[in-house]
Each structure stands twice: as structure tokens, then as C-alpha cells.
């Protein structure tokens, strides 16, 4: 932003959200110019903290009038550089809008403001018997999760953000406020017109600022059982997954860790799981249905030479078991202290999963790269957590080439370059390959209609 422009707009911003709601401090701007990814920090020119949708709208109108880029900021846990202000501009930190607005227990839905995180929502719901299951590991904001179409370990049973967002309140670049399913609507089904809700889910802040989301809730299951099981090969672990799903077992989580990842988890959490392809599983339901799910799964995994079954029934043991999986990112980083990590995120149809994982592991060895694999295997989605020395240019180049090869391998197998992290800064060229020129043109047309001045999070996605 040019200096004179900045001088003109700051008093206007302050008149909307107060002295405390605007910051030009270098430290604050730097903090808002990066997420958890390896993308370099791109600080905005100014950070604002609106307290209501009216303030978001008023601030957006000022930006629109002065042609200033608008970058929405949730909790900054994104992994694709989505919050970097590549063209400068105004970061809208939405953390002060943190109210849980309407819990409809009988209808299993809730509406939240953008500062509410998934953990905050679940502790708010503690006494209601309800919970929100989409779980990206990090304690992300729910509107940020809608913006990136996040998912995580529970998606195989409960779906991703796409299946769980019922309505969104969005402020467009010119300050207009819309409700993507109509104001106050919160039905499970709708055939009413175009699906604007799912246009904004996954739009990564490039179409508007999400200022409310209405979400589906679920009953807390009567009982839960978790398990860890070891396999002689990747193929055997994935075959078990496919057969469990084909058998109609409503499994809640089924996560794959390769030998390198389980070794890293063992070291990081002082555990002693066998160093081999491993599945972490979880079942939700009534005591009776759990018995049946567990029996069928045990039979299938045994038929695929699964061994070393560890079952966890009480909450504490289950918590310990899943902590190992949730710490995978930090366990990977601890393999090479001082290094940085980048997580790939491809997703393929389930039947292609063994082939792509086996080829990817060969590629890692051939190119002398550290990339433990952890996967939401029930969805065909897996991560190579690439641990690298950012000061070693040769290694950085090898990682970049590897991640592109991996994404193209997924595209060749009818898959996608990103199952849940989004496109952000680094996957724009891959998105073009994935969608083809005509679909990209339609996306550009939609963007131009909603944001003709290209102010919303410029430089991302398209
Ligand atoms: C250790 C670790 C593990 C992770 N595991 C997973 C995983 O398993 N699955 C998964 O899906 N993700 C995972 N993530 C990534 C991350 O948690 C998700 O992408 C999350 O959805 C980002 O939410 P956020 O609030 O932090 O968004 P931010 O990082 O603040 O923003 C992400 C993008 O969304 C936009 N945005 C944010 N808020 C809004 C809003 N209110 N309106 C419009 N646009 C907005 C931003 O401009 C940016 O483009 C992981 C991250 C970490 C650090």
C-alpha cells in the first residue's frame, strides 16, 4: 500500500473499530503475514480486528473505495501460505468475533462467529451431549476451516467441512453482506438454487470474508474403542481399509502411518510400536454395535496378516494412543532438529492408494529425502511430511521437484493435488492441470463477478 493511501485510511479504520482495533506495529504485521507453512512471511500493511459483521462490512467498504487488498485471518494454522499479504493490504483478524450464537440441540446445529475454534466449540457443547467432529489436528477457527474445506481424522465417518456447513454469512469485497443459503436457513437438505455455500467452502478467502457459519452437530457416541494394528506391507494395510469399508463397518477413524512415521512417533512419544506399516482405528456407537464392528474389523485385518493388535477402551488410553497420531507433525520435525516441514496432501481413489504410496516411498529413497507418511487412508488422502533444511538449496529444490512429481502422480491416478489443505500460493499451476482451462475460466468468471477489483486475498488459488 502506498504511504499516502495508508495515512488516509487509518483514521477511517480507527473510527470503525477503535484505536485498539488497528495495528501498524511491525511485530504484529509479521505475526499475521505467515501461517504454519514454509512459505515466506508476507506482512500486511495493517492489521484490523473488527468486532461485528457491521464493522467487517464498513472496513471492507473503505478497502474497496481505496482499492486495498483484504486478507482474512483465522488462527494462522494453514499449511499453504494462505494468509500471506503478497500484494500488501489489510489483514482482517477475526479472532475478536468469538461468540457461539445459536445452539439448536433438537435440530443438531449451531451457528458460530469466525473467532470460534473447534476446541472452543466442543468445550462449549460439553454438557449438551453434542459435538462437532471435523478435526484437522490444529485448533483452527471454524470459519478458517470452512475457508480451506478442512477435514482430518474423522472425515471417513462424519465428512469434511463441505458436508457439515449448512449456511454461511459472508461479507463481499465491496462490503455487501450475503447469506449463502438464505438468512437464518439451517436445513439438512435444500434444492433451492445454486449451491453458494459450497462455492465459499474452500474459497480460501478469495471470494469474501466468512463472518458466520452454521454447522451440523452430532450426538456424542455412547461408546468408543480405538486400536492400533501392524501390517507386513502398505498393500496389506490399505487392502484391510478397503475391505473394512466394503463390509459396511461405519468406522470413525482409520489412519495409516508408514514405518518411518511410526518410528518417529515412537521416538517422540517414548512408545514402542513395531516399526512397520500401521493402522490406527476408532469405532463409535452403542456397546452392542461396537462389538460387531470390532469383530468384523479384527477378522478382516487378520486375513490381511495384521498383527500386534492393541485395543484401547477407556478414555485415557484412547487419548494416549491418538496423541501419538496427532503429534505426527512434531514427531516428524523432531527427526531433524532445526529443520522445517512441508506437508504434501494428495488424495486418490482408494483403489489407487497402495500404488501411489509404494511409488512415493521409492521416490523418497531415490532422492535422499526425509518424508514420513501419515494418511487419512479411509478417504484416499495421505501426507508426506517433508522435513528439510531451508538453508540447503539443493535439498529444497529436490523437495519441490518431489512434491510436484507426487501431485502429478495423483492427477494421473484420477486424484487431486490437495485433499484438505487447499491451493494457497504453491499449487496454483497444479490446480490448472487438475481442472483444465475451461473450468479455470469459469472460476475466474465467478471471481470477477464477486470481486471485480480482485481485492480478496489476491495471488492465491487462481
Ligand atoms: C499440525 C497441523 C496439522 C494439520 N492437520 C490438518 C488436517 O489433518 N486436515 C486439514 O484439513 N488441515 C490440517 N491443518 C491445516 C489447518 O489447520 C487448516 O487449513 C485450517 O482449516 C486453517 O484454519 P485457520 O483458522 O488457522 O485459517 P488460517 O490459516 O488463518 O487461514 C487459512 C486460509 O483461509 C482464509 N480464511 C481464514 N479465515 C477466514 C474467514 N473467516 N473468511 C474467509 N477466509 C478465511 C485465509 O485467508 C487463508 O487463505 C493442519 C495444520 C497444522 C499446523
Describe the structure.
The protein is an alpha+beta fold and 462 residues long. The chain folds into 4 domains: 3-93, 2-Layer Sandwich (Uridine Diphospho-n-acetylenolpyruvylglucosamine Reductase, domain 2); 100-219, Uridine Diphospho-n-acetylenolpyruvylglucosamine Reductase, domain 3; 223-329, Alpha-Beta Plaits; 332-424, Alpha-Beta Plaits, CATH 3.30.70. 38% of the residues lie in helices and 19% in strands. The strands form 4 sheets. A 7-stranded antiparallel β-sheet has the order 15-12-14-13-17-18-16, with helices on both faces. Strands 5-6-10-8-9 form a 5-stranded antiparallel β-sheet. It has a 4-stranded mixed β-sheet with strand order 1-2-4-3. The chain is globular, with a radius of gyration of 22 Å. Flavin-adenine dinucleotide (FAD) binds at residues 35-36, 71-79, 82-83, 94, 114, 136-138, 140-141, 143-145, 147-148, 150-152, 204-205, 209-210, 329, 420-421, 457, 460. Belongs to the FAD-binding oxidoreductase/transferase type 4 family.
Short description:
The protein is an alpha+beta fold and 462 residues long.
Main features:
462 residues; Probable D-lactate dehydrogenase, mitochondrial; mitochondrion; binds flavin-adenine dinucleotide; Alpha-Beta Plaits; alpha+beta; 7-stranded antiparallel beta sheet; 5-stranded antiparallel beta sheet; transit peptide; FAD; 4 domains; 18 strands; Uridine Diphospho-n-acetylenolpyruvylglucosamine Reductase, domain 3; Uridine Diphospho-n-acetylenolpyruvylglucosamine Reductase, domain 2
Amino acid at each position: 500500500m502506498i504511504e499516502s493511501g495508508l495515512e488516509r485510511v487509518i483514521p477511517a479504520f480507527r473510527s470503525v473499530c477503535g484505536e485498539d482495533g488497528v495495528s501498524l506495529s511491525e511485530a504484529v504485521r509479521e505475526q499475521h503475514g505467515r501461517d504454519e507453512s514454509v512459505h515466506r512471511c508476507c506482512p500486511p500493511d495493517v492489521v484490523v480486528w473488527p468486532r461485528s459483521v457491521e464493522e467487517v462490512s464498513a472496513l471492507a467498504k473503505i478497502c474497496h473505495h481505496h482499492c486495498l487488498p483484504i486478507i482474512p485471518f483465522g488462527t494462522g494454522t494453514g499449511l499453504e501460505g494462505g494468509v500471506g499479504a503478497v500484494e500488501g493490504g489489510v489483514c482482517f483478524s477475526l479472532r475478536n468475533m468469538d461468540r457461539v450464537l445459536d445452539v439448536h440441540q433438537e435440530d443438531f446445529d449451531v451457528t458460530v462467529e469466525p473467532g470460534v475454534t473447534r476446541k472452543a466449540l466442543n468445550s462449549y457443547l460439553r454438557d449438551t451431549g453434542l459435538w462437532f467432529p471435523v478435526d484437522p489436528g490444529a485448533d483452527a477457527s471454524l470459519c478458517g476451516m470452512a475457508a480451506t474445506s478442512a477435514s482430518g481424522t474423522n472425515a471417513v465417518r462424519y465428512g469434511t467441512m463441505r458436508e457439515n456447513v449448512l449456511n454461511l454469512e459472508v461479507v463481499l469485497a465491496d462490503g455487501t453482506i450475503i447469506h449463502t443459503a438464505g438468512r437464518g436457513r439451517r436445513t439438512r437438505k435444500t434444492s433451492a438454487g445454486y449451491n453458494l455455500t459450497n462455492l465459499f467452502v474452500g474459497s480460501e478467502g478469495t471470494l469474501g470474508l466468512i463472518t458466520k457459519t452454521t454447522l451440523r452437530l452430532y450426538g456424542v457416541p455412547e461408546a468408543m474403542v480405538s486400536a492400533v494394528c501392524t501390517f507386513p506391507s502398505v498393500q496389506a494395510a490399505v487392502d484391510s481399509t478397503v475391505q473394512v469399508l466394503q463390509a459396511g463397518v461405519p468406522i470413525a477413524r482409520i489412519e495409516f502411518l508408514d514405518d518411518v512415521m511410526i518410528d518417529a512417533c515412537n521416538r517422540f512419544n517414548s512408545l514402542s510400536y513395531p516399526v512397520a506399516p500401521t493402522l490406527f482405528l476408532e469405532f463409535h456407537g452403542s456397546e452392542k454395535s461396537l462389538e460387531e464392528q470390532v469383530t468384523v474389523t479384527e477378522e478382516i485385518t487378520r486375513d490381511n496378516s495384521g498383527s500386534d493388535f492393541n485395543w484401547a477402551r477407556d478414555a485415557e488410553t484412547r487419548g494416549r494412543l491418538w496423541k501419538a497420531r496427532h503429534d505426527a507433525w512434531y514427531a516428524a520435525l523432531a527427526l531433524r532438529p532445526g529443520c522445517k516441514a512441508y506437508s504434501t496432501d494428495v488424495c486418490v481413489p482408494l483403489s489407487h492408494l497402495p500404488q501411489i504410496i509404494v511409488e512415493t516411498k521409492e521416490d523418497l529413497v531415490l532422492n535422499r529425502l526425509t518424508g514420513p507418511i501419515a494418511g487419512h487412508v479411509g478417504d484416499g488422502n495421505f501426507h508426506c511430511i517433508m522435513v528439510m533444511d531451508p538453508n540447503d538449496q539443493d535439498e529444497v529444490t529436490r523437495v519441490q521437484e518431489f512434491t510436484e512429481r507426487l501431485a502429478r502422480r495423483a492427477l494421473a491416478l484420477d486424484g487431486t493435488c490437495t485433499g484438505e489443505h487447499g491451493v494457497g500460493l504453491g499449487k496454483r499451476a497444479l490446480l490448472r492441470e487438475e481442472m483444465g482451462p475451461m473450468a479455470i475460466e469459469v472460476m475466474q468468471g465467478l471471481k470477477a463477478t464477486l470481486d471485480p477489483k480482485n481485492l480478496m486475498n489476491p495471488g492465491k488459488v487462481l
